[in-house]
Design a protein that fits this description.
The protein is mainly alpha-helical and 96 residues long. The chain has helices at 3-63, 66-75, 89-95. Helix content is 81%, strand content 0%. The longest helix is centred in the middle third of the chain and has 61 residues, at 3-63.
Length: 96
């Protein structure tokens, strides 16, 4: 084998190795970039869900307000009872 052929082989191998390293590097960078975009998308979605959850908490607090429940009961014709009599089974059976 002559010196020129060996030099050509080594040079071709070095170029091929450099090309493969460049492809590997680009693949890694592309993957990191894609994961970064996916992470941003998921963070935006998380933030939107947190905002919706806060709105629902406010809405729930309004619906659970005693004044609203009392107003709704009055609108339905219900009245607040001052005393509720509780009967045991014996008293209930005696009334029948």
């Amino acid at each position: 084998m002559t010196w020129e052929i060996r030099t050509f082989g080594v040079t071709a191998a070095a170029i091929a190795a450099g090309f493969l390293l460049a492809l590997l590097y680009l693949g890694q960078i592309t993957g990191v970039s894609a994961h970064g975009y996916e992470m941003q998308r998921l963070e935006a979605h998380r933030d939107e869900l947190r905002r919706q959850s806060a709105l629902l908490d406010v809405q729930l607090a309004k619906l659970d307000a005693p004044a609203r429940i009392e107003a709704q009961a009055a609108r339905l014709g219900l009245a607040r009872v001052g005393h509720v009599r509780v009967m045991n089974a014996v008293e209930l059976a005696a009334r029948k």
